[in-house]
Amino acid sequence: MDAHSESEGTHVFGSTVTRDDIVHNWLPRYTGVPVEEFGRYILLTNFNQYLKLFSNWHRVPIRGTDCEMPNATAKGITIINFRMGSANAATIMDLLTAIHPEACLFLGKCGSIKEEIGLGELILPIAAIRGDGTSNDYFPPEIPALPAFALQKAISTTIREHQKDYWTGTVYSTNRRVWEHDDTFKGYLQRTRSMAIDMESATIFTVGFHNHIPTGALLLVSDQPMFPEGIKTQESDRKVTEKFVSEHLKIGLEALRQLIENRLTVRHLKF
Fold first, then answer.
1. What gap in Å lies between CA 31 and CA 80, rounded to an integer?
2. Taking the mean position of all CA atoms in its chain, how far away is CA 139?
3. Which run of H or of E encompasses 97?
4. Packing angle between helix 234-261 and helix 48-58, nearest 10 degrees?
5. How far is CA 146 from CA 36, 127, 164, 216, in A?
6. What is the pLDDT of residue 9?
7. What are the pLDDT digits (tens) for 145-198?
8. What's the CA gap between 78 and 80, in Å, rounded?
9. pLDDT, tens digit, for every residue of 243-258?
């Protein structure tokens, strides 16, 4: 790079850099898509299979395959694979302030903490415990992580229309991996009375609230990590994906379409 081009790159934001400048620059940088081409309703996922199904069903291309967060858009809905973990969850929720979406729904996988909640079952969380750490940069630890009630209500209605049932309660979010051997941590999880454990829900709820973005989540039970025979493997995850992911995605899409077609708002709070 010559001196002239390096100088241009250094001053891309101008003399004063605002948060708005950064997110408008970084959302396309992370996704490969111009800000104006995003849908107003967002589906978040950690897995490419959801992205491929969405692309095939709507006959639209997957964009940003050479970027950190590949995505696809159809009929006002954009699905984004933001990868895994609370840090990435916070990043995408910050970057989405560039478009101020009407609603943001996380379709994640989780581990069941309770023996009676089996593989392929759905959990509609009403709250998340903030064991993620990342959300502490946005609110004090004692502030609860809550989804937007109206969005969760729309998801609940859609699930029942599919003649399925679901569990509802609290999910524990952690940024820790490979804890399945740790009996002390597992005992702590049981004392929290949580139904499931994941890595992102608390972060998405907290950062979404911080950024005035209505958020919700519908979690698919992919493993039962409290028991040795229930710990996720590559093969067990493949079976769950083949059997349950398609309907998980359909329910998420239909919930957002319900909001779009009925022109319902989930901005029920004065932020």
1. 8
2. 19
3. none
4. 50
5. 29, 5, 24, 8
6. 36
7. 999 998 999 999 999 999 999 999 999 999 999 999 999 999 999 999 999 999
8. 6
9. 999 999 999 999 999 8
Record the tokens describing residue 184, joined without a space.
């002390």
Neighbours of 17 (CB within 10 A): 11
* Gap between the Cα atoms of 222 and 121, Å rounded: 8
Contacts 24+ apart (CB under 8 A), 8-13: none
SS3 44: strand
Q: Is residue 188 helix, strand or coil?
A: helix
**Domain assignments of the chain as residue spans, ordered by start:** 3-261
Query: Which range, of 7-21, 46-60, 78-92, averages the lowest pLDDT?
Result: 7-21
- The band of 267, judged by pLDDT with boundaries at 50, 70 and 90, is low
Q: Name the residue type at position 32.
A: G
Q: Is the pLDDT of residue 5 over 60?
A: no
**Other Cβ atoms closer than 10 A to 90:** 24
CA dist., res. 218 & res. 177, Å (int): 21
- Helix runs in 44-182, H state only: 48-58, 86-95, 149-161
The architecture in CATH of the region 3-261 reads 3-Layer(aba) Sandwich (3.40)
Residue 246 has φ and ψ, to the nearest 5°, of -60, -50
Residue 30: predicted pLDDT:
98
Residue type (1 letter), 244? F
Instruction: Kindly state the tokens that stand for 62.
Output: 């997957």
Do 82 and 30 meet the contact criterion of CB atoms below 8 Å apart?
A: no
* The model's pTM: 0.91
DSSP 8-state symbol, 72: E
